[in-house]
Write a structure and sequence with these properties.
It contains 14 helices and 16 strands. By secondary structure, the chain is of the alpha/beta class. The structure holds L-homoserine.
Length: 400
């Protein structure tokens, strides 16, 4: 029998209890022994909920109980999650978490603590919700030199961009609908400004490098400045706009950023819509590979957390080797990153050509009072230097 304690009875925590209870036979069979939730920790009370009988308010009850084998941390935020997780590992308990803030900041250190205590620290649900991307990087794509990892890693912004595209609506009105439907938080900053995707690409990049990639070093731009006009231009090019978390490994340089990109609709991530996530990777032997699924939500996220519980039950007393050292990995300067840019300006074609030479112009009936164009492939630095001479409305990077 494996006893589990769940820290936090919010959306994901209640999902974890539900997955373990509803799939009791399957989960226990795959774990090789019965899995039981012994405690749920939350500050709140839940009168009438079956969990009431196992609810505790004091973490010490869990960490001091030698019968607890696995702690599930689904509280979110760095504190007190960090101290709870660290003390659980030091007490010889494995930990499964969905907490991307915690993993992005302390993942390498907590893996080292787990190794020192011969237990496991697993975090499949921290990126891509139910998509098994972390286990794939750590345990499956081990024969390849990974040259690119690009993902639609945030369900909220993907929902907003998809609806703007489907309905021709502007950002603010779609955000309001997303909030009413519970897809977007009341304070949506972490999602719409790209901070959530930034932590997720930092985790994936760290795992590919085997070293610490600090999320603060990743250039991050959200979707708040995208307008319905930008989407119309994208459609006119048979393209769509997606918020990418992307890392490219070019020789000894690693370029990582979160930003909206104009991509062809037939791009491998072009049809990842609504709250779905998609992750594209390229390996030098494997070639292209793509992962798709529900990147958020109660049961998909809980499914990934419980898959970690199963893995930990199968590896009691044995650390699963995960290479993520605490040494910092330096990222290359994004100013040297090259791509084609789409730009909208209040300038003349002569002025555009004086700066960028021959460009491809784009026209849509809804924006007859401006000039829109696509540059050749140039560096971020070059683009910034040249565009200074024009009256820029907005620009978006492209994969074209
Ligand atoms: N806010 C996140 C998203 C939740 O929209 O993807 C899952 O990490």
């Amino acid at each position: 029998m494996i006893n589990v304690a769940v820290l936090g009875y919010g959306t994901v925590g209640s999902g974890v209890v539900e997955v373990i209870n509803r799939n009791q036979n399957i989960v226990s069979k795959r774990a090789g022994q019965d899995i039981k939730v012994k405690y749920v920790l939350d500050l709140r009370d839940f009168p009438g909920d079956p969990v009431e009988e196992i609810l505790v308010h004091d973490y010490n009850i869990i960490v001091n109980d030698p019968e607890v084998d696995i702690v599930v941390e689904v509280m979110g935020g760095v504190n007190p999650a960090y101290s709870f997780v660290k003390s659980a590992l030091e007490a010889g308990k494995s930990v499964a978490t969905s907490n991307k803030e915690l993993v992005a900041v302390h993942g390498a250190e907590l893996l080292a603590v787990a190794k020192a205590n011969n237990v496991n620290f697993l975090f499949e649900a921290s990126v891509g919700g139910g998509i098994p991307i972390i286990r794939s990087i750590i345990r499956s794509l081990t024969a390849d030199d990974i040259t690119e990892i690009t993902g639609i890693l945030n369900g909220t912004t993907n929902y907003i961009l998809s609806k703007m595209s489907d309905e021709g609506s502007d950002f603010e009105s779609v955000l309001k609908i997303a909030q009413e439907k519970g897809y977007a938080e009341r304070n949506p900053e972490a999602d719409v400004e790209g901070y959530d995707a930034c932590r997720k690409i930092a985790i994936l990049t760290s795992l590919v490098c085997g070293k610490q990639v600090n999320y603060e070093d990743i250039y991050t731009e959200g979707i708040t400045k995208i307008t319905d006009i930008d989407i119309k231009y994208a459609k006119a090019m048979d393209c769509t706009i997606k918020l990418f978390g992307t890392t490219k490994f070019e020789g000894d340089k690693i370029y990582s950023m979160v930003a909206p990109f104009i991509i062809p609709t037939n791009h491998v991530l072009g049809n990842v819509n609504d709250v779905f996530n998609g992750v594209f990777m390229h390996g030098n032997m494997l070639g292209d590979t793509m992962f798709y699924g529900k990147g958020a939500g109660k049961l998909p996220t809980a499914s990934a957390v419980v898959s970690d519980v199963v893995d930990e039950a199968k590896h009691m007393g044995r650390n699963i080797m995960t290479i993520w050292e605490q040494d910092k990995m330096e990222l290359a300067d994004i100013l040297d990153f090259q791509c084609k840019f789409f730009a909208r300006v209040k300038s003349t074609k002569e002025e555009v050509e004086a700066c960028f030479g021959n460009v491809t112009y784009l026209e849509i009936p809804e924006a007859s009072d401006e000039i829109a164009f696509l540059t050749d492939k140039i560096s971020e630095k070059d683009f910034q230097e040249k565009i200074k001479n024009l009256d820029l409305i907005y620009r978006i990077r492209t994969t074209l």
